[in-house]
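Comment thread on ticket #2218

A.B. wrote:
> Attaching the input chain for the structure job we discussed in standup.
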Amino acid sequence: MKKIIFILISLSLIIPIFAQGAERITGVWYNGEKTSKIEITKSEDGLFVGHLIWMKEPLDKEGEPKLDSKNPEAKLRTKPLIGIQVLHDLKYNGKGKYSGGKIYDPRAGKTYSCKAEMVNNNTLELRGYIGIPMAGRTDTWTRTTK
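C.D. wrote:
> Ran it. Output below, let me know if you need it in another format.
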């Protein structure tokens, strides 16, 4: 009986550790150039998304908020960059790896397939690509605060 209780208590302590693995990616991240901060959250469907929450230079030459002017959808070109969703639908695959997502580059107005890997708790490597991951570019993000 003591053995069963010990096993149940051990399992109740170990299972949350595995569940946290997927959510390690959540939080606020600097992009590789440290010119933007992206907040990654878990969506209702269990996938991970990221919103642009800070920019080093948020205003244009006229002192107005920079807009998503290169967006391929004309109706979105008047939307401010702060607040836009730049990371879509990343799925956790285990062992700190994520795939199946999309990443939007507002500087170019282009969306790429995306995969990511947690190097450690404070370093995230995101790879944007067209077609196959080998034909892409990796950006290393670092954890920060709001």
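A.B. wrote:
> Thanks. Noting for the ticket: Residues 6 and 12 are 10 Å apart (CA to CA).
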